[in-house]
Amino acid sequence: MGPQTDDRVLGGRPFSTLHFGLDDVDGVDPRQRLVVVGNGMAGARVVEEVLERGGGEQFAITVFGEEPHGNYNRIMLSHVLAGEEHEDDIVLNSHDWYADNGVTLRAGVRIDRIDTHAKLVHAADGTTAPYDQLVIATGSRSFIPPMSGLHTHDEQLLPGVFGFRTIDDTRAMLAAAATHRRAVVVGGGLLGLEAARALQGHGLHVEVVHAGTHLMNQQLDADGGAILRRSVESLGIAVYLATRTTEVVGPDRVRGVVLADGRTIDADLLVIAAGIRPVTEVALMSGLEVERGIVVDDQLRTDDPDVYAVGECAQHRGELYGLVAPVWEQARVLADLLTGTDPTAEYHGSRTATKLKVAGVDVATMGVNRPERDTDEFLVISEPRRGVHLSVVIRDDQLIGATLLGDTRKVAFLTQAFDRGTPLPEERIRLLVDLSDGAEEVGVAELPGESQVCNCNGVSKQAICDTVAGGCSSLSGVMDATRAGKGCGSCKSLVKQIVEWAADGDVLEDPTASWYVPGIPLAKPALTEAIRTQRLRSVSAVFAELAPGGQEDAKSKMGLTSLLRMIWGSEFEQENDAKFINDRVHANIQRDGTFSVVPQMKGGVTTPAQLRKIADVADKYEVPMVKVTGGQRIDLLGVRKEDLPAMWDDLGMPSGYAYGKSMRTVKTCVGSDFCRFGLDDSTQLGIDLETRFQGIESPAKIKMAVVGCPRNCAEAYVKDVGVVAVGSGKWEVYVGGAAGATVRKGDLLATVGSAAEVIELTGRFLQYYRENANWLERTYDFVPRVGLEKVKQVLLEDSEGIVLHLDEGIQRSIDAYTDPWGQDGRTPATPGQFSTALPLVELPKVPVR
Amino acid sequence: MSLTATSTTAAHVVGRVEDVPLGEGRAFVAGGTPVAVFRLRDGSLHATQAACPHAGGPLADGQTDVNVLVCPLHLYTYRWTDGSSPSGVTGVRVYPVHERDGALVVEVC
Lengths: 849, 109
Ligand code: SRM
Ligand SMILES: Cc1cc2nc3c(=O)[nH]c(=O)nc-3n(C[C@H](O)[C@H](O)[C@H](O)COP(=O)(O)OP(=O)(O)OC[C@H]3O[C@@H](n4cnc5c(N)ncnc54)[C@H](O)[C@@H]3O)c2cc1C
Ligand code: SF4
Ligand code: FES
Fold this sequence. Notes:
The complex is a heterodimer of chains A (849) and B (109). By secondary structure, chain A is α/β, with parallel strands linked by helices. Chain A folds into 7 domains: 181 residues, 3-Layer(bba) Sandwich (FAD/NAD(P)-binding domain); 114 residues, FAD/NAD(P)-binding domain (3-Layer(bba) Sandwich), CATH 3.50.50; 78 residues, Enolase-like, domain 1; 53 residues, Arc Repressor Mutant, subunit A (Orthogonal Bundle); 49 residues, no CATH class; 78 residues, Sulfite Reductase Hemoprotein, domain 2, CATH 3.90.480.10; 154 residues, Sulfite Reductase Hemoprotein, domain 1 (2-Layer Sandwich), CATH 3.30.413.10. In chain A, the strands form 12 sheets. Chain A has a 5-stranded parallel β-sheet with strand order 5-2-1-9-21. In chain A, a hairpin with a 4-residue loop joins strand 28 and strand 29. The two termini of chain A are 55 Å apart. Chain B is mainly β and 109 residues long. Chain B has a 4-stranded antiparallel β-sheet with strand order 2-3-4-8, with no helix packed on it. A 3-stranded antiparallel β-sheet of chain B has the order 1-10-9, with no helix packed on it. Chain B has a 3-stranded antiparallel β-sheet with strand order 5-6-7, with no helix packed on it. The two termini of chain B are 25 Å apart. The chains are: A alpha/beta (849), B mainly beta (109). Bound molecules: siroheme, flavin-adenine dinucleotide (FAD), iron/sulfur cluster and FE2/S2 (inorganic) cluster. FE2/S2 (inorganic) cluster binds next to loops of chain B.
């Protein structure tokens, strides 16, 4: 969508001119004439609701809209501006829709005035149209606060200045975003912040100037506003509060703005999102009662009995609304009245509850945001570091307001309580935090003994308590004895709590907790140091030199193998017995002792030739199941160990490392090559990342994804490293995400300007993680443990002076990469490497499906 | 009444010592009984039933140290001394095993 499409009619018909309907054959049509002025969200909704009630029989409907387009979803303009949504996808009612429903749409025609006596509307093009019933739905426009230098001599906005209300505004901003570099957004409310975030996504440097003392002051209290400000600033958007823009620096185009305190900000793009004003000129010109908006009663009638007003232009019981929810309610009431479906229908105002995402931050608000009376209860939970601020206001046991910032999990219950007056829990805190999701939070004391704590290994609370009672009172001891917490690990913190509770505080300080592996009493940094200085290149050498009594430990071997490989690269001395079976045979062991074979399929991209080979191999070796994995490649499951080398040979494809604690896959979406939304070549970048980091071993597995736009089709937001194209050659790099047993959205590490920078930064992050993470610690634990700020400082600002070292470290591992399938297939590493370990005679114990 | 032990033990040559690489395990059949034989890095030999009593895991693919064997499927551990499990589950059967002229001899009953 560039300037070339700028005058394309949205939701229009390719070749049509204006469509004239039944009102031209006046007199023949027995139906009443319903005219709607304004083809926005309210006007079009009224028409829809009327039609739904069979109003097409009663009325010949004509809609006038100043915009040339069909009706579109104005709310989605921020997404269009952000490049997340294509403008064609926000059309609600196209020109065809009107024609198909027998509604005359006069798009691109402004109404100047209504003659309420003659019951005629006068359009700007000189035509008139008679009505029996008239609905005014002219909406709002951007409020442009007074500032000098804003207009050119002919009263046009200076080039580079934009409001944010219509698709045309949005198109113009998109076109400008491609060529402009510094934007100032006037207004720190919903619209301003959305615009700021969207423009930043296009690579502009963005600053927000807000007259209020805190951001979104309509919805948030000062504390909430302060927290939102931190979140916004952490995105790299500067915020100026409590100051106005008094002057625009010109004169031919925007060059900057001057603030009330005299400061100047350079800018070549200026967005004005300082609020909205109802469009009331038509009503004023026609002698209808107008205060701030067009005054209507509970039946949405103006002071003329046949003229109604709905939407943002209407003022009802003194209120003006700026959100769509009230618009929908009004449209329903009006349709009931017009069609006679419910002649007593009334509108009594809306309790506005909104759930929004502002600049990537979840916000939900309803009712009041602070206590108003001495007896009001007010509960606040504020976690500035996490960007969370939650509050509720309760009066006489009823919820009268709630504000949720950064965490809107409780919004469903709160909205219900707010709308319907559902009874509130005695413990008010339960309104804001879920004390009952997950047994973990119930409080371990109340948990019944038989309740299963570890689902993977089927361990009950009682079993844990019994073990503690039996004299075992360290977490690791209990975990070893019961296996609780040793499956997926998600119950570990619950197990810990139960052990603490059962031991009555008498828990043994677990010295092994800080060790990298259980068999060597050293934390990772000391262990690494010892391995380096003593030049220990094999796992047996590490045990001999560093383990107590030189004793080896089975459960430490895999972690040590990984660490040594990272430290020594190709100088590492392999020992097969120090590897887990998966790593010995380069395949993943299955429940019946067979293996799975997952060939590399970089970025999820394959070829007919590859597919043919896979099919042939599956046939030849009678593979029981061929499955497309969640990692965008193909898994051949149930393969006999003996067949592995021959299969690899026949496949002739490298290993996909689906078995290792290593880099697994890089998922991609189709990106700009094929997708109509693609902002960049995500597929190629995914392939490049996988090529560079294939098989790199690490403390735990690493999964990556690259997507071509924030729709996130390949789930990059929930990967250890996730890369998101944001347009203009820029990419966002997220780290620490996961969507397995733990679901965590990655943290934005940086937005960089090229694919090469993504690759460089990814390598640095990987190496930093490899060197500092504990054994089996996924990035979703590592990043929060170290802290995003610290990670940023180390990787982006080189605060520890180790970036060069990290680059070298990862390069060493990359250079040491060899495809294990090509390597071990021909000459086995040890005798009988691929001989079966399956029971060689029928055994009743083996589970059969 | 007298207690009479009626078990008969038979020794079987299952293979050569070098068939089991140092530190690893391999599966064999000893007179119809599937067994897993391990040769630790200290040179000692151990033999257990081939399938894990937990869920049939291939024990020969497990990892070892001087004290225990770890099953590859769910990482249950079993002691060499008597096959009992520190994890508190049913133990494995252990069989006497020794080397005779480079041959692996396992005694099953
Ligand atoms: C094959 C596959 C399922 C499928 O049929 O689609 C799969 C299969 C297994 N997953 Fe997975 N995971 C597969 C995609 C995923 C994904 C999806 C993804 O990668 O986008 C996830 C969630 C993403 C994530 O990890 O953040 C996933 C989260 C897990 C987890 C949870 C890890 C965590 O820390 O939360 C485990 C357990 C673990 O690692 O300890 C696991 C473990 C396993 C193991 C390795 C279980 C095991 O230890 O044997 C399964 C091996 C089966 C086999 O022999 O191949 N798998 N697993 C997928 C292989 C993808 C690939 O091509 O490499
Ligand atoms: C960028 C953006 C994001 C938003 N996000 C949200 C959100 O997340 N949630 C939410 O609830 N609300 C949001 N809103 C507000 C929401 O869009 C409005 O509440 C809603 O559009 C109001 O509907 P309306 O019909 O009253 O006004 P509009 O949709 O503005 O429609 C009025 C129409 O009347 C036409 N018109 C005006 N005068 C005349 C005339 N004289 N003759 C003919 N036609 C005329 C105008 O051209 C316009 O098309 C957002 C608004 C914007 C701009
Ligand atoms: S493939 Fe993954 S989700 Fe499925 S059973 Fe195995 S570990 Fe569980
Ligand atoms: S099968 Fe051996 S531990 Fe489960």
